[in-house]
């Protein structure tokens, strides 16, 4: 039986679970990188105040938005390339 008409067998439950686990790992790693990069870029290391300043908050919002936008563009491009090669599967 083919999956999505590609002539390949449908992925097993174990393969689907492994794919989801891998996706979660990628997202967790992306989050860790984003926190590290945006914190270094936006926060004053002297910690003069207990709360974020308005400037720090705005910087963190923009940094996170740009990080996610870049991640999404890269993911979309990788998905297009994978589909062009006929590999992978979509849930």
Automatic annotation (TrEMBL):
<dbReference type="Pfam" id="PF02953">
    <property type="entry name" value="zf-Tim10_DDP"/>
</dbReference>
<comment type="similarity">
    <text>Belongs to the small Tim family.</text>
</comment>
<dbReference type="InterPro" id="IPR004217">
    <property type="entry name" value="Tim10-like"/>
</dbReference>
<keyword id="KW-0811">Translocation</keyword>
<keyword id="KW-0479">Metal-binding</keyword>
<feature type="domain" description="Tim10-like">
    <location>
        <begin position="18"/>
        <end position="80"/>
    </location>
</feature>
<keyword id="KW-0472">Membrane</keyword>
<keyword id="KW-0496">Mitochondrion</keyword>
<protein>
    <recommendedName>
        <fullName>Mitochondrial import inner membrane translocase subunit</fullName>
    </recommendedName>
</protein>
<dbReference type="GO" id="GO:0005743">
    <property type="term" value="C:mitochondrial inner membrane"/>
</dbReference>
<keyword id="KW-0653">Protein transport</keyword>
<dbReference type="GO" id="GO:0045039">
    <property type="term" value="P:protein insertion into mitochondrial inner membrane"/>
</dbReference>
<dbReference type="InterPro" id="IPR035427">
    <property type="entry name" value="Tim10-like_dom_sf"/>
</dbReference>
<keyword id="KW-1015">Disulfide bond</keyword>
<comment type="function">
    <text>Mitochondrial intermembrane chaperone that participates in the import and insertion of some multi-pass transmembrane proteins into the mitochondrial inner membrane. Also required for the transfer of beta-barrel precursors from the TOM complex to the sorting and assembly machinery (SAM complex) of the outer membrane. Acts as a chaperone-like protein that protects the hydrophobic precursors from aggregation and guide them through the mitochondrial intermembrane space.</text>
</comment>
<comment type="subunit">
    <text>Heterohexamer.</text>
</comment>
<dbReference type="GO" id="GO:0015031">
    <property type="term" value="P:protein transport"/>
</dbReference>
<keyword id="KW-0999">Mitochondrion inner membrane</keyword>
<keyword id="KW-0143">Chaperone</keyword>
<keyword id="KW-0813">Transport</keyword>
<keyword id="KW-0862">Zinc</keyword>
<dbReference type="GO" id="GO:0046872">
    <property type="term" value="F:metal ion binding"/>
</dbReference>
């Amino acid at each position: 039986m083919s999956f999505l008409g590609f002539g390949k067998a449908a992925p097993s439950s174990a393969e689907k679970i492994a794919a989801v686990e891998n996706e979660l790992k990628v997202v967790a790693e992306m989050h860790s990188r984003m926190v590290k990069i945006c914190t270094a870029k936006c926060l004053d290391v002297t910690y003069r105040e207990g709360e974020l300043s308005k400037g720090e908050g705005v910087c963190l919002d923009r940094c996170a938005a740009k990080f996610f936008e870049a991640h999404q563009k890269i993911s979309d491009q990788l998905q297009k390339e994978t589909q062009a090669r006929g590999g992978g599967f979509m849930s």
